Amino acid sequence: MPQAHPLARVATWAFALCFLSVSGAVTALAAEATGPIDLQLYDRLLAAHTRAVAETVGTRVDYRAISRSAEWRTLSEQTRAARPSEFTGDERLAYWINAYNILTIDLIATHYPVESIRDIGSFFFPVWDKKVATIEGRTLSLGEIEHKILRKMGDPRIHAAIVCASTSCPSLARHAFRAAAIDADLDAAMRRWLASPKKGVAIDRKTGVVHVSAIFDWFEEDFEAGGGPLSTIARFVPPADAAWLRGAGRNARIRYFDYDWTLNALR
């Protein structure tokens, strides 16, 4: 048989590689849509029912609209029907971050209107102990998801990703967290949170005082492996601030912002 022209062979290989690349992308998208949580649906609902705002809260949520959304009910059911014990490490981490945020929004939407998530609970029975879902036969509260599941995974960046529906919480990400990009997603969440001088970090070099979120006080032990709060923060702030924190400011006094529990509702 006659040999194919070299350029023809190159073109054939190029077409094959392109086909495989497109096929892989389509397969990945299909997996997202048919996985435990339809992440494309979650992205779409976040785009429709949240707003980025130039306020301390960062992201506001339309809980009234969510409470009426059949698609949100589908997403909520998917979250509860998942089998996270069968996931890989990154899949499990991404799932539980998404689950925490979805179930928190679901809880608020069910009780809306409220002025604060804490209004759903009481002094003797705080909202964090309220059961919000049964997953793989285990009935869980938000507190259990945070303390007994997510924190035990050993990545303190989760504190920038899970959102307690309050003004002083890290701003709710307007996209789903994905296993394939979890490291980049968590880094971005840390940078976004710490960029706020009202609830993330504010550095006063003249007085040697660094104001940070009270989250760094409540969960200080989670940041010890990274050298403590200031060393952790230095990884996610602009270079000049990072250099100061690692140099002259390494022994700076830490002060904590007052925590504003006002609901992050779209009004």
Characterize the structure shown.
It is a single chain. This protein is mainly alpha-helical and 267 residues long. The protein has one domain. 45% of the residues lie in helices and 10% in strands. The protein is built from ten helices and seven strands. The strands form three sheets. It has a three-stranded mixed beta sheet with strand order 5-6-7. Strands 1-2 form a two-stranded antiparallel ribbon. Strand 1 and strand 2 (59-61) form a beta hairpin. Helix 5 packs antiparallel against helix 6 (142-150). The N and C termini lie far apart (74 Å).
Keywords:
two-stranded antiparallel ribbon; mainly alpha; 267 residues; globular; 10% strand; three-stranded mixed β-sheet; single chain
Whole-Å distance between the termini?
74 Å
Strand order of the largest sheet: 5-6-7
Inertia-based shape:
globular
How much strand? 5-15%
Q: What can be said about the biggest beta sheet? A: 3 strands, mixed
Count of separate structural domains = 1
- Oligomeric grouping of the chains: single chain
Provide the gyration radius in Å.
22 Å
Q: By helix and strand content, what is the structural category?
A: mainly alpha
Number of helices: 10
Spans where pLDDT lies below 50 across 5 or more residues:
14-31
The helix content is 40-55%
The count of strands amounts to 7
SSE pattern: HHEEHHHEEHHEEHHHE
| Mean pLDDT across all amino acids | 91
